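Run log, item B.
One chain of 170 residues. Sequence copied directly from the ordering sheet:
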Amino acid sequence: MARPQAHECAPYYQKYIALAKGDSVNEIVKNHAFELQEFYNSLPDAKADFTYADGKWTLKQVLQHVTDAERVFAYRALRIARNDTTPLASFDENVYVENGFANERALSSLKQEFNSVRAATDVFLLGLNEEQINRLGTASNNPVSVNALAFIIYGHLLHHQNIFRERYGL
């Protein structure tokens, strides 16, 4: 299995795919799972409610966002891997954050949820065969492969890790 090709997802997602290092789903999991788990679990309580600018999300809201987005991407991958050809709707990340109430939760609770979703995603992805990984479906009115979704999941986490480091001072 190779890295996703341009036709396997909307152009918007190429920036995430580019961040995931490896040439297969197995490789990106091997290359990034532990590092990402360690990073996100080390998010400090002292910065839980920090935002780097007015109108930007708190650290807790970003953590909930990456967890929600991973759930959505993994659900899309599940549907497509199981050969469900129903086009899948988009989601509005801002509405999810607004209605997630992350700021009312303890950071430890958000980390626990993150860890559960991460573990479930990796077990799911590593259990797919090549036929399932190669399947194409439709999400947000664009073609997308299960392979691309796996790389998007990891690239999205890496993207936000970079933002945490650059803008949240972590």
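Observations after the first pass:
- DSSP finds seven helices and two strands in the chain.
- The helical segments are 14-19, 25-41, 59-81, 93-98, 107-126, 130-134, 146-167.
Flagged for discussion on Thursday.
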